[in-house]
Design a protein that fits this description.
The protein is α+β, with helices and mostly antiparallel strands. The chain has three helices and eight strands, in the order βαβββαβαβββ. Strands 2-3-4-1-5-8-7-6 form an eight-stranded mixed sheet. The two termini are about 15 Å apart. Bound molecules: carboxymethyldethia coenzyme *A. Carboxymethyldethia coenzyme *A binds next to strand 3, strand 4, helix 2 and strand 5.
Length: about 130
């Protein structure tokens, strides 16, 4: 794992949550994007070395909607920036780590993403995020 790329935070309503981040904490808003493969609308904020990703559910079926229903708003996942995601996934699988999919999916900004089951990571949902950078 090269570095933490972003921290995902589940919110019920992006428009309600954003002013806290942009006006109170004064973090620059980098962009807002709908990620239909994950049933979320996301907003990225610049927090120095890493980004914060606010995740608002679209509909009631996705992972973030379920998370908020069960656990409320708050920290949802930590994303590691990686290169060659398929190889990283194979390495993790060989070490017995349960991944949540066999193939990477398309995430925000066109990155290839995959998740490790939180049960495999002592209660933390980790994402691998490959933006094609070396
Ligand atoms: N962090 C830590 N633990 C989590 C968690 C999270 N974000 N989400 C669920 N869990 C825990 C639950 O508390 C539960 O633990 P217990 O069995 O002790 O109660 C266990 O994992 C199973 O969870 P669940 O509520 O039964 O929910 P599901 O099994 O339906 O889904 C998960 C959990 C992680 C498999 C699902 O959320 C998933 O597939 N996540 C990956 C995709 C994703 O999160 N996408 C949204 C982000 C998109 C983006 O960044 O663009």
């Amino acid at each position: 794992m090269k570095k933490v790329d972003h921290i995902g935070i589940a919110v019920k309503d992006l428009q309600l949550a954003l002013p806290y981040y942009t006006e109170v904490l004064q973090l620059p808003l980098l962009g807002i994007e709908e990620v239909s493969s994950q049933n979320v609308t996301v907003a990225f904020l610049d927090a120095g070395n890493i980004k914060l990703e606010l995740l608002e559910p679209i509909g009631e079926e996705g992972a973030v909607a379920k998370f908020i229903e069960k656990r409320g708003e708050g920290m949802h996942h930590i994303a590691f920036g990686v290169s060659s995601i398929q190889e990283r996934m194979e390495e993790l699988k060989a070490k017995g780590v349960q991944l949540l999919q066999d193939q990477p999916k398309q995430g925000a900004g066109g990155a290839a993403v995959a998740f490790m089951h939180p049960k495999a990571s002592f209660g933390v949902l980790y994402e691998l995020c490959d933006k094609g950078e070396k």
